[in-house]
Each structure stands twice: as structure tokens, then as C-alpha cells.
Amino acid sequence: MTKKEEPPPSQIPRAVRVASLLSEGEELSGDDQGDEDEDDHDYEGVPNGGWHTSSLSLPLPRPVAAPHPMDGPPGGTTPITPVIKAGWLDKNPPQGSYIYQKRWVRLDADHLRYFDSNKDAYSKRFISVACISRVAAIGDQKFEVITNNRTFAFRAENDVERKEWMQALQQAMAEQRARARLSSAYLLGVPGSEQPDRAGSLELRGFKNKLYVAVVGDKVQLYKNREEYQLGIGITFIDMSVGNVKEVDRRSFDLTTPYRIFSFSADSELEKEQWLEAMQGAIAEALSTSEVAERIWAAAPNRFCADCGAAQPDWASINLCVVICKRCAGEHRGLGAGISKVRSLKMDRKVWTETLIQALCAAVTTTDLAETQALLGCGAGISCFSGDPEAPTPLALAEQAGQTLQMEFLRNNRTTEVPRLDSMKPLEKHYSVVLPTVSHSGFLYKTASAGKLLQDRRAREEFSRRWCVLSDGVLSYYENERAVSPNGEIRASEIVCLAVPPPDTHGFEHTFEVYTEGERLYLFGLESAEQAHEWVTCIAKAFVPPLAEDLLACDFERLGRLPYKAGLSLQRAQEGWFSLSGSELRAVFPEGPCEEPLQLRKLQELSIQGDSENQVLVLVERRRTLYIQGERRLDFMGWLGAIQKAAASLGDTLSEQQLGDSDIPVIVYRCVDYITQCGLTSEGIYRKCGQTSKTQRLLESLRQDARSVHLKEGEQHVDDVSSALKRFLRDLPDGLFTRAQRLAWLEASEIEDEEEKVSRYRELLVRLPPVNRATVKALISHLYCVQCFSDTNQMNVHNLAIVFGPTLFQTDGQDYKAGRVVEDLINHYVVVFSVDEEELRKQREEITAIVKMRVAGTASGTQHAGDFICTVYLEEKKAETEQHIKIPASMTAEELTLEILDRRNVGIREKDYWTCFEVNEREEAERPLHFAEKVLPILHGLGTDSHLVVKKHQAMEAMLLYLASRVGDTKHGMMKFREDRSLLGLGLPSGGFHDRYFILNSSCLRLYKEVRSHRPEKEWPVKSLKVYLGVKKKLRPPTCWGFTVVHETEKHEKQQWYLCCDTQMELREWFATFLFVQHDGLVWPSEPSRVSRAVPEVRLGSVSLIPLRGSENEMRRSVAAFTSDPLSLLRNV
Fold first, then answer.
1. Of the CATH numbers 1.10.8.80, 3.40.50.720, 2.30.29.30, 3.10.25.10, which one belongs to the domain with range 955-1084?
2. Quick one: pLDDT band at residue 314, thresholds 50, 70, 90?
3. Does domain 198-287 have CATH number 2.80.10.50?
4. Which ranges of 336-403 would DSSP assign to H, the alpha helix?
5. Residue 264 forms beta bridges with which residues?
6. Helix residue ranges per DSSP H, 810-931
7. I need a surface site. Which of 156, 413, 990, 1029 has the fewest CB within 10 A?
8. Taking every annotated instance into account, which residue ranges of this chain make up the domain PH (predicted)?
């Protein structure tokens, strides 16, 4: 047999057997039928040999060389134990078989190990050098390694190699004994070993019998049983510099290395936690360095723990300047960072500056530093006035004197509160820890972090008790208060959201959620509401900047930072801070003053735009629009759900409903608006009942989210809607008139003097809550309009009172006084609710517009259905600039323009001519609306390829200058003309552009073939023309200064033609003249309003105009009676 030398470490292929890389869930076989190396084959092959994977390997490219996997991690801090000798040997089984098995054997200063292969990460067996009694030659090329009760036989390839192995073993034994004499290991009963941090039996997945496991220093050692542990003969050991531990369930945990996963099970949950703590300590030990510790131990007093006197303490309190052992460090940490700032001498390398090391060594030898410590301990203020204006604080005084050690000590104690004596109770001492802004500590119950929202309830069993410390901007959680290394940590700078679910959402009554930039969600729980609130407050203060500290003034359900766009700054998103409290969303933006809270239940729009990857939450409130972007999906989805829930109705009372601008519940004016537009002429409205099933479904939808419900004719019958409204009012827990005042209203109806009764009603109205008061007015105003059409709907005041009396007062219908109250309120509507002439006029205009639209719809065969919420754009048509707004019948173009500008907080400067344009994309033309033009009829005439946009009218100033300097009110000149006739309804254009002469005066526009012509070829009434700026390109206009003119005949037939001018100024002059003659000289308001339009308190007709039922003649009669003189319809006033 030829000798096989071990290749140099640099030439060893970096490959690891798959037996070292088994997945976490694989079951391991304990049988090793082919290896008779030991008495018990089950344990012979634990790490590598017997798990039926010997044929699999993961070799890396050969040129990439690396040392043996267990020699130490690349770049690691754990010292590599030098290998004395390594090579292939034949090993004889203990049964004395003549069949030798080849093994890769390695000898270092502490252990003799043998492996199946030179590529294996973990050994089949190891023998402690300290336990070897002697080495002897036994024949040709054979030698024995003899321990107290075991003998291991090996065979080399020749006598020379055998001699080298025997000499190496004997030298290692001599060096080991020499080291042992200098240590106290013999006192422990295990020669040559150090005291384990923890030892005991554990189950290893795949084996029937338990293994004996010992955590020693930075290694975890596996033994067959306790006897072999005492003999120093083990299976393998795991270097924890490459290990990590995590819990799996109540009794199980995994030890993970790059080579394989060891799945252990303990006998109890407590024992599991103790094993986890010990192994985490081994990891900390493996990753530590002794350089700082050696320097600090150079001072004799620092070689022992300041608290218990244990030797070689490897922890320190940097603000108290004392060295402590690991056990005492856990006690110090339990005091909180405000009392003792604990740092490791071996791990926290960045903390240990040269000055801090000197300060810790000097604290026990330098009298001036000891004196400073004594002063601080006696209650001296760390920032007290020194008496020197140039160096007002002790720190400044030390800096002035060049006392670097004093400065270091004072800096470390700036946030420390020391024991103080209470003058009122001289015998009682207490610590005052600065918890809110700097630090906090205590036990929390924590679940495993999640990458998605927690939809299901987390049971109490899913929480694990952890010792948590919030200090220096880091939230760390440990296995227990004595643990050295944290299981994990959350940096405050990475927290993007803090949420507080309602009580009893999970297994613990009080919980809170922490969201991080890494898209992770951490759930913590406590039983005590006070402790949970304290933790939430401290964490909030740790990650919220001073800019947004006002958000912490009140309790919140959700707090965090989100990218947003608002105002006109829509080009790029900025980061703002938001807090959700009840139905209020508070916001703090980096630029500008603190924003007023958004009342989520008063939003005009709440929608989601964009695709699933780039979602944008749009919140539209009067005067402003806010776009919140979903940059991080996890916390954005949490915000989205919370905001939607806060914006929905919270209960059954009126004040808990979604509200409109006038504090009227959305559910009420949704129904009122629909019936106003669809049911004013419906016979028996409110007296007839709708279908029970449809009414119930509609009411449930309205209660859930009335803002998103759109009532449309053809989908909902007016009787179903009226029944839903009545049921909602009847089911109110406190009633519309409240239980406290209900009797007073009924008693007022019996007052005989009409003036006294009306006065009493007015007094009672003022006493109602604001939402109830606004709802009563809106409902009575609606019923007043209904009774105005009693000739058609057969619902006069008395009939309405019979229906609504028992509904509003929630009586059984036997009390006639309830109906009398409703009848009085309708009859005295103007006086009781202080309705002025202007408000009544607007109400009359809205009803008139409804009927006119009904007449027009009946004549043309068209119908308009649904709530008309118009989309208007600011400056250009983009998703970021769109605004959704309700259009009442009375709204003018000026009011719409100001409404849009108010929402976006756009100020109007001098010579800013903001105007609303009707844009026709198909015709490539646009028309600036006249400021007094009603918007609603325009909206009903818009096609799918048209929209409204509010922008500056760039030519208005030049047009006004022209109109101010011109003489007369006519305009004439040559323009290029082209007519566009619809042939056979196909819309085919005919002809090209031709020169024509035009004359425009106050009554008509005339077209002449030439200047000398006496008779016009065409003539149109000027007020029936709509003039659009622009001509579509496919017509090939001769110039770029043209406009499109649309004329609608009395038969509702549309004619369209195109005009082109030679210059831009000529175009502006013609267009200015058109506006001048069409609007009687008033082109622009002389004093345009600079305030937003006042929204009427009564919301009638504020949605799309829907045709009324009934014949055209019936509606004409009803409208004539209503519009002639509405005041004449008031009775007994």
C-alpha cells in the first residue's frame, strides 16, 4: 500500500458531502450497516456516514481551494486550531475483525478525530488528547491509542509513517498535560476539559436514543452517553462560529450550519429555552475577540466581577465603569439602559474606543475619576451649571481642562438617571429611568415575523415570551433577561409603521404591530393595557422625528411614514408622516405648516388607482386632494384597510355614519337625491312599500359603505329606496329627534298659538345634536319639495305626515301628535329652518332643471341615470391631476373652477385667468366656458371623448385689451371656411377650405361668398353657436389658427363647420367678439370671486339629473305651479 500524503490546505477542493447539508425536514436514519467500527453503529455515523447519502456530493470547481470545512470560517474571528498531523489510516473495529476500514485522521492539540473522507465536515469519532493514557506499537505498521477503558487500533502504510503518528501523539499528550497543570481543569473531575455552559440529554431527529450534548466554550459537542462524555470520547463537535439556532415549536429547535441542520428536541419548553440561551452564548463566544478583554484585565481589580467576584469577567457597564461577569450582565440589563449601559468586552468592538478602555482601567486607579463617580452617585446633575460661563457644564469644564477620561465618563452618563434621595421620604430610594424617549425594557410576548398582513387570529400559544430592550434606537429581544446575545433586533430607523389593533384581536388582549422597510411585520402582545401603551409610546418616540412629534399628542391606531403627492407638487413623491385616530387622518409634511386632519367619514372620494404593483390611494376632501402611494406593499395594505374601515360607518347612530359636507349622513342624501330626481312625480311615493328583500339588501349596502353605492334608475325602484330610507330612520337607536327631546317635540305640537308653536319648534331644533339638526332640515326640505308635486304623486302634507310621524318618532302609529309635528315642520319649513330667499331660489332652480331635463329626455328618447360625479382635470388630463366632484344644477363654470383650485390649494394671482375648458379629443378642439355658464347641461352633452379641464386662459388678457380698445360691437373680415355635413348619418366631410366673408353682430353671424355680395349665403343666430378653439388635423387646415363652430337647430340637429384665420391675433379678435356678443358684453367678471363657492346646506339635486316619471303634461303643470311663485305654496305662514 503506497503512502498517500495529505494535500496542502490551499489545494483541498472546496466540497462538502450532502450528508452535511440535509434539509430541515428530512428524517435521518440511525443505521450504519456497512460500518462495524464501533460497538453501537447507530452513533458511529451521526454526522456523515450512515444517512444513505454517501453517493451524493456538491463539489465546487477545483481551482477554488479552501481549508477543511471545520478549520474555521473565512474571515472569521475564531482562532483556527493548528493541525499537527493528518492523513489516511486503516482502523480496526473493536470486535477484532481483520477487515480494516480506511479513515481520514486528523490530530490537533486537543483532539484526535477520524472521518469517512477528507471532505467531511463532521467526524465519526473524536478522542480528547487529555484522555489518552499512552500510545503503543503492536505489530507491522500498527499502533494503539489507549484510554482509561478503550483501545483504538490503527494501521499505517509503513513503519516510518507509524513512527511519525506515534511521535505526534506523544508530543500532543505531553503538551496537553503541561497546559493542564497550569489550569484548574483537574478540579472539575474531567481531565483536560473546561466546564461546560450546559450539558444534558437531547433527542436528535432520526435516532431512537438520546445523545448527550455539551456546550463548551464556542463548541457544541455530541456524545453517545454521559459515560463517554466523562471519558472524553465523543462523536463530533460543532464550531458555533458558523452556527445559528432558532426555535421550531414548544420543545424543538434547530442548530443550523452551512453543512447540515441538527434538529433537537428537549423534554420541556423551559429546558428548550435554556439550551437556546447556552448555544447563543456559544455563538457569541465564537464571534468574540479577547483583545479588549486582555487589555482591561491588565488592571488587577478588573480580573474579577465587581458584583459577585467571578474570575475573568467579559462584560462591563460603560457608564458605571465596572467590569462584570455574564450572569451579572443580565441583571444589569434588567435595570434598563437608563441605569446601566452593558457592553461585551469581546463582542462590542465598535464601542471600545481607546479613551473608553483607558477610562475603565483608570476608574479603579485614578482618584479624580473615582471622585467624579462618587459625585454622580450622590445625586450631582450631569448637566448642572459649573459656575464658569465659558464652560457652563461639567463636560465643557473637562474639555477645557483636557481631561479626556473625565469627558468619556460624562458622555456615557448624559442619559443616565442615578439614585436620588427624596426629601419627603429620606429613607426611601428609587430609580427614575428616562423611558419615553431613550430606553425601555421588559417582557413582551412575540410571534414569528410575517411577510404579509395578519388576517387570522394569532392564538396565545403562538406567542413566545421574550425580554425586550429598547435602547439607542434599537429594539432587541432576548430569550430571557439573563441572555447575552439577542435573538434579533429591529432598528428604529427601519420602522415605517406602528399599528395598534383593537383589544382582543389576538390571543393576548393588547397587541401592537411593527412594520419595517424590509417588508416584515412583528406582532407583540401583553395583558396589561398600561404596559402596552407605554411600549407603543416609547417605540413611537424612538422612530418618529421631531418634525412629526405633534402626531404623538393623542392616541392612534396607526402611525408611520408614507410617500405622498399633494397640491400642485405632483411631479415627485415626498415622504410624509401620518397618524390615524378614529376617523381622523393627521398628516405632517416636510414642507409647509401642519395640515388640518382629514375627516375620513366626510371624504368626497376614497378610491384606489393604478395597477396591483403601483397602487395609489386617492383621498378627496373639500379644498384638497391627497395621493398616498404604495411604495412598500405590506404597510400600504395595512394603511389601506385601516383607512377604508375608518371611513366607513362605525355604528347605527347618526353621528357614526359617513357624513357629507353639511353633516348630513351620506345614506340620507343618497336616498333623498335619488327620490328627488326619480320619484317626485311617482304616485304614492313613501306610502308604497318596496320589496322586502331588495330593501334589505340595499340598506345593508348603504350601511356598509354608502359612499360607494350608486343608485341608478332601472337598477333600484324608487319604492325600494324610499323604504330603505324609512327603515334606516326608524331603526336609529336614539331616533332622529333623540329620546331625551322626543317628548318635548310632541308636547310642542299641542300649542294652539301658531307663532308660539313655531318659536318652540325653533328652540327645540337648536338643542338637537348638529348631525341630527342638519338631517332634520334636509329631510323636511325634501318632503316640502315632494308635497309641491302632490297633484301628481298624491302625497300632500297630511299624507306625508301620516307616513313619517311614526317613523321619525318611532311610535306605534297611535300617537297622532307625531304626525302633527311633521305636518307643522313642512308647513312652516321656511320659518322654522330660517330659509332665506336665495336658498329657496336655488332649490327652485334645481327642481326646475330636473324637470327640464326630464322633458328633454322624454322628447329625445334619452335618459340619464346615476349619481353624477364629474371628473375634472387640473391643467392637463393625467391620473395625478383628476378631481371627482359633485355637480349641482346651479353650479356655474366659475364656481367649478374655484372649487377645483380650492381643493388643490392653488392661489389666484393678479392676471391669472383660470377657466374651465370643455375639451373634445376627437375634434382636437377646446372651448373655454363662460364664467356664468351652467355646468350640468354641458356635462350631460359630453361624449365619451370629451372632458373638462381647469387651466389658465393664456389669451384672455389680450382679448380683454382688444375689447377695451375696439369701437362698436361688430366684427367683419375674410376667413377660410369649410362645412362638415353628415351624409346619410355617416359623418363624411365634404369639400375643402374656401375664402368667405363674415359679418358678426349682436344678433347673428352672416356668411357671404365675397366682400361685394349683398345677400348672405348663410345666417345663424349668434347665441345658438358654440365656438371651439382648434381644427382637427386630418382636415388639413390651411393655417394653425382656426376654430370649430357647432350650431344646433330647433329640431336638435347639429351643424358643424370650420374657420381659419391668417394670424393668431386675428383669431383672438374673432373669438373675443363671439364671447362679447353672446354674453351681452360681459366676457370676464369685473370682480371675480376669490373665495370658494358656498355649498348649500341642503343637498338637493347635487347628483346627476335623472328623468322623472309621469307624462310630460303632468310635469309641465307641476313645474309651472312650483316655479310661478313658490312662496304662495306655503301654508299657514
1. 2.30.29.30
2. confident
3. no
4. 354-362, 367-377, 394-401
5. 204, 253
6. 816-827, 829-832, 837-860, 893-903
7. 990
8. 82-174, 195-284, 437-544, 968-1079
